[in-house]
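User: We ran a pulldown and think these components assemble together. Before we commit to crystallization trials, I'd like a predicted model of the whole complex to look at. Sequences follow.
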Amino acid sequence: MSSWEEKVHKVTPYTPGEQPKSTNVIKLNTNENPYPPAGAVQKAIADFDYESLRKYPDPTAAGLIGALSDTYGVPADQIFVGVGSDDVLAMSFLSFFTSGEKILFPDVTYSFYDVWADEFRIPFETVPLLPDFSIDIDGFCKGDAAGIVIPNPNAPTGLDAGTAALEKIIRSNPQCVVIIDEAYVDFGAESVLPLIEKYDNLLVTQTFSKSRALAGSRIGFAFGSKKLIKYLNDVKYSFNSYTMDAITQKVGVAALSDPEYFKMRCLAIINERERAKKRFTELGFDFPDSKSNFIFVHHPKVAAEDIFAALRENNIFVRHFDGERVHDHLRVTIGTEEQMDALFEFLGKYLEEKA
Amino acid sequence: MSSWEEKVHKVTPYTPGEQPKSTNVIKLNTNENPYPPAGAVQKAIADFDYESLRKYPDPTAAGLIGALSDTYGVPADQIFVGVGSDDVLAMSFLSFFTSGEKILFPDVTYSFYDVWADEFRIPFETVPLLPDFSIDIDGFCKGDAAGIVIPNPNAPTGLDAGTAALEKIIRSNPQCVVIIDEAYVDFGAESVLPLIEKYDNLLVTQTFSKSRALAGSRIGFAFGSKKLIKYLNDVKYSFNSYTMDAITQKVGVAALSDPEYFKMRCLAIINERERAKKRFTELGFDFPDSKSNFIFVHHPKVAAEDIFAALRENNIFVRHFDGERVHDHLRVTIGTEEQMDALFEFLGKYLEEKA
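Assistant: Here's a predicted model for the assembly, 710 residues in total across the polymer chains.
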């Protein structure tokens, strides 16, 4: 190895879910929304003045922040936006978790947390989920962490810890910033957003990628105290002063302009999820009781990897994770009624043949 | 200060050039292109299928990488793309400059380098420009740095060091990665791109923000050896797996599809710059001989801050930097013929009144 290579910061990258090239597949592997974004998004793109692209975008994304402020009833100076939740979370790790002391997150959770910790040389400890996959609340209440991050609902389990339990964790940790990652909160869980008034160390992150069907646009956001948001913006502006492009800022505003469409689509996904739970149960699967747009299923008689491979061969993509506590499970994103019917039709036949 | 605040990573953010709200201004302060992007960009936006935004974008940006590969004659696996040059450079700092040893860059240069170094806790030393503002080549040839970054042409001086001098620096530093930041290279300087075949530790970064008139879209890119690009992608994927949104990927491809338009606009800016040099000289200004889309001017009789303020009062925005070696200068972006005429008309009168 030549000498410059010795200085390279080597990391093991996160592996995102497969994006199959063929369009002839049922894609239930990356928690995307099966419905298109609001029609207003189409108009925003069509109306966009391409000549304006010669200029830098508004670095403060004031239009989008204003629309978020109106939608969520939170003052503009308590809102932060980034290029997807991942950008918001990475900036938060850099801002709040680099004191050199250890941070905490669950052992089974969003697989990017430990990647960022490694990336930014942040020591961490995982708090194991309880045997039923629920968060070990007391494990997070010791008050000695230098940072805490918990998704609610958790991924890939889909479980909602509930506001009371989360508030207990926040209350027990005034010594550090607590991030509640609410990427999936719009599918039936309760947001802890109101608690930002009470705890100035609470950061609540959300995204347009799932419930607003804009994974392709990369828009994440966070709510917190003025102080927290100021610190976060300082780090963001010292990293890249113009992160969110001009078209995306307009797309985000458009998506927020149609709350009825948003509610209707979330409800459709919730209803389809509940229907899926019944059908998974009928087929002998068990699963934590998801409040998200995916279900983390396990079959007591057939190995998850076998089901995964059989589905894949039939152009149905779901997600399988390695790892001791999760390799017996599959994470299945909720699709349209037609997609889910096709999934269950295949699974019914497949399990019958296996039996 | 409450205890969580003690753990916050506090930084002094970079201050970008002012983006005036009024449209009735002549904006020569952020090195934007005065012309719109290629017409193909308009079509790409109009043709974009908004429904596809529900899905994650291609994390590899294969379409854009392919178009860059065709345009520059560089294999796809030697090209990296990011959300603007700033993103590409920040990822490069994280990938190549975090060994704990000191990196080098000029004392007068792009103001983000020291911000990233602070952000990522990278020790650095600056190599002072020579009195004529040119790069001190020998100062970069000691062979003991853990990283080197030099913009060519340099900002805010606009000076081109020339390929021979840059190659001497690269050849003298096999022990570390050398980044040549070519944000402004398309306005008449020679790119060191061919040298990536010879030096596997050379990274050449460029951007769509200036010469391709797409500052609003946030597209930066880099060329290097396969090894360098692989390391960079590993860090990128461990930071944010989906950075560049789907529309921007199409916009980038469209911008590359019209090389004639690109050449025509670059030439117009170069011609206008040369005309501006004559007029600045006539008005008594001196300046380094710029090869970029800006000129770094100094007037021996009137303070830069006074000229800056007078211009600003008349809705002409240029850039003034604090700092011992630069506060007597103004960085003036090259605008359209009309904008430059207005600038010189005002300056002529203003300096006459002052005399």
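Chain B touches chain A through 89 residues (CB under 8 Å). That may be worth checking against your pulldown data before setting up trials.

User: Thanks, that helps.
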